[in-house]
Amino acid sequence: MSNTPYPQSYYAASANPVPPRPALQGEVETDVCIIGAGYTGLSSALFLLENGFKVTVVEAAKVGFGASGRNGGQIVNSYSRDIDVIERTVGPKEAQLLGQMAFEGGRIIRERVAKYNIQCDLKDGGVFAALTSKQMGHLESQKRLWERFGHTQLELMDQKRIREVVACDSYVGGMLDMSGGHIHPLNLALGEAAAVESLGGVIYEQTPAVRIERGANPVVHTPQGKVKAKFIIVAGNAYLGNLVPELAAKSMPCGTQVITTEPLGEDLARTLLPQDYCVEDCNYLLDYYRLTGDKRLIFGGGVVYGARDPANIEAIIRPKMLKAFPQLKDVKIDFAWTGNFLLTLSRLPQVGRIGDNIYYSQGCSGHGVTYTHLAGKVLAEALRGQAERFDAFAGLPHYPFPGGQMFRVPFSAIGAWYYSLRDRLGF
Predict the structure, then answer these.
(1) Alpha carbon of residue 419 to chain centroid
(2) What is the pTM of this model?
(3) Quick one: a GO cellular component term (predicted)?
(4) 273 CA to centre of own chain
(5) pLDDT classification of 421: cutoffs 50, 70, 90
(6) How confident is the model at residue 127 (pLDDT cuts 50, 70, 90)?
(7) Which tens digits make up the pLDDT trace of 300-309?
(8) Alpha-carbon torsion 325, 326, 328, 332, what sign?
(9) Given this structure, which CATH class describes domain 10-410?
């Protein structure tokens, strides 16, 4: 039996203890079989269990093995493409509903943490940092846009004000979102999994779905068992492989790299980020960073298209960290890892149904921590027959990558090169 351990990340090294979860042997019956125990699957499971469904989750590796347990740990509102882009794409009526949902994911995370007493170092406050006056202009219009949808916990910061919250000389200003924030992402997933089990849900680890038998009574086949269900939710995201071929064509796994310093000590940590907010800059290929509960700096950035693991992550990310914080030049890096997220051509999430009973959500395009929690709620609503919010997402247009799966990597890399060049040249 295969046993896939967590990658050697800071999160895995500092994870809360959890019970072993066996692989599925034999046949089980359930109302809903969820494929994937990341945030999308766990959030769906919780909402369904709270509404009386019988739920079984199959996970190819371990809870939170994918992006849910490897990301930068930042609670960032809205979607990878903001509400104004959605408005231009689908019109004001549909965009209204999606706009109202754009800030719900963060609220769901906080509700879960409070209700199920999840220990995941939750801290409030996220900063968008502008490197140019053009980016500052974008933040000003973003604030107006978000406020139109009732989101008011925002403060624009000039150069003097941003220096009070980030000890970095590169920024001309920024925006503080107090409903943003940060968490230990793997511990959030593990806490949600424990909540699922406390409500009677069952999670099988080391249990990849190898085939979905479609039809009136769908069956998920695994190496040593099968799950008969009324409904299936496909929540594998960047780790789904070719299990559902029609989803694979419209998305591309991408890698992002993260490093974590040794513990910095209270004093040095406080000089870098005095209020313990998390930060991301406004570049197309952005850098993001924050402090951990034990006062290390987590710093991430860069995108590797097609999800190859780069040979030396530290060599890619450390220079970015030192550009922001040259005072860390003698600090040791204790952890470096990569994780995949799923990119769509539109950068909007893909939500839909295959036949009558297979539902899916994927393609958060790097904005997954909040969106996946909302997606779980929206999928659970659809299974209960309340499909208005589900339909708003399902109605977003999606396109296959040009040139199919063979050429999607070079095309996207060229696009990213173009945008990063624009960032560097400041236009």
Answers:
(1) 22
(2) 0.93
(3) cytoplasm
(4) 23
(5) low
(6) very high
(7) 986 665 545 5
(8) positive
(9) alpha beta
